[in-house]
Amino acid sequence: MITPNTLNELVETVWPAAELAGLNCGHVHFELVDGEDIQALASYQGLPIRYAHWSFGKTFGRLKTAYDYRLSRIYELVINSRPAFAFIDRRSSPAQAMLIVAHVLAHVDFFSHSRLFADTDRNILQTTARHARKLAEFRAEFGAEAVESLIDAALVLADFPGETDSGWGEPGTDPGDLLGFVARYSPGLLPWEREVLLMLRAESRYFWPQQVSKIGNEGYATFWHTRLMRQLACGADKFWEIAAVNASLLEVRPPQLNPYALGSQLYQAIYRQQGLSGVFAARNFLDDAGLVRTALDQDVADLCQLGVYREKDVQESPASADLAQVRAQLIQDVDHGGLPYMQVMAQDTLATGILAMQHQYDGRELDFYQLPFALALVAQRLWGGPVHIHTTRKGAPRVAGHDGQQWTDEAS
Length: 412
Hints:
Elements: H1 4-21, E1 28-33, H2 35-43, H3 54-68, E2 76-79, E3 84-89, H4 94-113, H5 124-142, H6 144-157, H7 178-185, H8 191-211, H9 214-231, H10 236-249, H11 259-285, H12 288-295, H13 298-303, H14 323-334, E4 342-344, H15 346-352, E5 355-359, H16 371-383, E6 387-393, E7 396-402, E8 407-411
Helix pairs in contact: 1-4, 2-3, 4-9, 4-10, 5-6, 5-8, 6-8, 6-16, 7-8, 9-11, 11-12, 12-14
């Protein structure tokens, strides 16, 4: 267990080394919390204040169970804001905390430089606190059921916030901005309901860059904490404890993908070929798909045992899988955060009154077990009328739909 004084000493030790190495960490507020507090923060996606919703409690229960049974442990959480906030488990030893501090500083450097986070709401804590207050007011005025059902339906579309290289546009102007389109054009929503959708849209856009840079972000932080720990003078006991934590963090258990191991190896490959300038360039410009496309070679594939990696398949790939096949599969699985590409067919929708969406089929089908329930929520609570998705199933074009009462699945 560490104390605030010990943590301050570790920060004063690691920070100069990080800045000397080229990391720009800005101001970071470090806070020691209990392990259960870390689980609670993680259940709210790392933010201390969020609106009330049952899904956060469900996530907390799952994380706490894993922590109680020593199945997993979250050492730190970093909030991408100005200033940045870092929460560290107070049960960490001084050696563990030293590694954690280095890891945190690299995360903050990544947030500060990656183009993916250029338009991030750096006042996210104030934003989510304001949203929580407003939603509590709506619950009191319109009833908990009305607010809860609206959030349930909105979360179906919240993972499709739309995106452009020039930044976020106005609601509904990007075909990929499903929630923004519904908030703007739905014929049945009340003004307060449109306001709720726009609040959830704003929060989903804060999290989206993290969704598409899990491997890059964790890999970059792991790459740097490894380098910084080698540079800092540590006693033998502390050195071996740091090595043990790092080994646990980098453990590979195929066919599961370890983003810490894969990401750090990809950055190591870039460093061997291009030096630190290449590492910083990759940090600045690449999402996960770009990082894999740029740096994955046979050595990295072997070290991370990617020959047996299949994120969506219970059948393990053969250990001798071709590198090109592994690369293509991995890029497909991480591209766009692993989510399908969906767009509103705006002209058709506005002309017919039917919310029509196009799924850009890439060989992976939509989940037709969950789809009827998802479309029912959208039709009943968000659009107030029929909803269609144009997709492909078993090699044939299909139109799946729901009118609020009945599910349909027809040939296109």
